[in-house]
Amino acid sequence: MSVVSGCNGGSSTTSSTVDSTDTTTTTTTSSTSTILDVSLFRSIVSSGTTTCTLSNGASTTCHKLVFNDNVIHNSNGDLVDDDAGPFCPSGYTMLDGGVGIYDGASGPGFQSLTQTLWDNMANDGYDLIDEVAGTVCIQDPRLGTTTGENCTAACLEASANDALTVTYLIPVTPQNTTSPTAIGSVQPVGLSLDGIPFAGTPPSVVTGPTGMAAAVGGNIPSLDYCGGHHDPAGYYHWHLIPEAADKVHQAHGTDNLANCGNKITQSSTALTGYAKDGYPIYSYADMLNGVATTPTDLDGCNGHTSVTAEFPDGIYHYHASLDAPNMPTCVKGAFVDQRSSPIIK
Ligand SMILES: [Zn+2]
Ligand SMILES: [Zn+2]
């Protein structure tokens, strides 16, 4: 088994070998869940419960949920995993790329990967353009290859590896902590109902992924229109809650080029997945008396307690924001620290 960081950020794979005995506590008892409903997950490989240790030190029972890699469905249940991308554009003036988050000085923010960005990045000293060929230099962190020459940095686009599985440990009963836990760059947020990892912000373009040398500065991770891409191991993950992605594009002016709804059905009120502390994550509104209603009482983690379609008695849950990324930026409850996971094998 190897453990892989949650993001597509470096020039080399971050896989490392770990002791395989970390799976020996697994049991096969059936779930007694009242919050996380295993039957809602699409394409789940196996589920059960196991003893786990949470970030607050508590020993408790966790769901153990296993999924195959890169399996993406739309809201109708149709498989759309072949539609990942577009990622890095083919040429300097091309409009066929995805989106990214630039944190340099010139023209920062969430934006489409176009000439405007390349020019701003060049202004900041990051040359991603092969001027001879007129192409964007593109690096595949999984294969360690770069296309294009005469560049000092690259657009990052890891290729897929469809031979992986991912395992999540989610507490059956959420345990609130005295203060919320912030979710840092590329740290796990939770999982979608397809079992696709929800992750924190992509790596900084200026400083690179956390823990890597600043020499990688200037490499921009590419995201597709739904906010997803493959990590250096080839595992697809979301930096946007995809059901609300087009609302984010509208809020950031990227909607003229980007459209997630062609792949993932957009919904203001959908249950999109679960956070790593066991609480549900919804799109940006609640369905109240048949009307999609934007909540006005959200806490610092973009969560609140309210009735939902799935929990008519009310439950604490998170909402997508209209920021980019639109993930919760903190969690209210304790969680299994899978910072260097999802566990890929
Ligand atoms: Zn990522
Ligand atoms: Zn709500």
UniProtKB/TrEMBL annotation:
Q: Where is this region: Disordered?
A: 1-29
Residue ranges spanning the membrane: these are: none
Low complexity bias spans: 11-29
Superkingdom of the source species: Bacteria
Specify the protein name: YHYH protein
**InterPro entries per the record?**
YHYH_dom
Outline the extent of the YHYH domain.
Answer: 168-285, 294-333
Q: Name one Pfam family in it.
A: YHYH
